[in-house]
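Collaborator request, handled under Task 6.
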Amino acid sequence: MISVLGAGAFGTALAVALAVNGPVTLWGRRIDWRGENPRLPGVALPDGIAVTQDLDRALGADILLLALPAQALGGFLDDHGAGLGGKRLVSTAKGIDLSRLTGPSAMIAARCPDARVAVLTGPSFAADIARGLPTALTLACADAQTGPALQQALSTPALRLYRTTDVAGAELGGALKNVVAIAAGAVIGAGLGDSARAAIITRGFAEMTRLAAHLGARPETLTGLSGLGDLTLTCTSDGSRNFRFGAALGAGRAFDPATTVEGAATARALARLAERDGLDLPIAAMVTRLAEGRVSVEEAMDHLLSRPLKEE
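Structure tokens returned to the collaborator:
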């Protein structure tokens, strides 16, 4: 039995996709819709999905997918972590917690030490998954038995999972690419062109790889789906909320404050991490200042372009 905790667009999409394998429970704090989630228009929920606001019912499953935003995950674990012991917990969050400066797996392990923790990440849009379009994701799990079992349980004919034991690398790839996507969107929104976007993507990937290695990840993990794959998708598509947010910043347009933009909070977390560890993260620093309104896109680009010339 599988439960998806979090009835946003992505959690709902996962529930729809996994329902082809068997019954799925979809839990949300406030569900005021029936048959179709307004965050995922045009996608009817199959009969195999039980939608509930009863958390105890959802926690009866052995596999729990935590489809919660990175900045909300800590609070959920504080409130309900005691009921998650012994479960197989799969986080889909793509971010770094602002208060703890850690990724989702570390937060889960700290509150649920006897749980078996995994991370599901990679290049994907909720609408594609829900409509059964081919999607490949990374499933990261350090446990040699739990990883293969989850890979089998969470794969479908259209949803292909590739396994790794490098949990840190997988979740850092998913978190850091959101920051670069905001920068890429800002470049396009400001009318600076595709060549400038390509430069941001390339240097952003280098920044991602350096930071991941500093935090103990394997650099080669960043060349896979959870790093380069997800980076490519989010930096080149209007389907990415982080890219759209950056484009709005670059064009001087307002952005819907109700829309979750994981990369903005992650950029602020990276700024604190850089200060703590003495790291040079120029793109993350500029995204933080842009999102906080402390610099314009032109000032941010001038700063990045005035950095010392050096070998690649």
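The cover message to the collaborator said: "The first helix runs from residue 9 to 18. The radius of gyration is 19 Å. Please let us know whether this matches your experimental observations."
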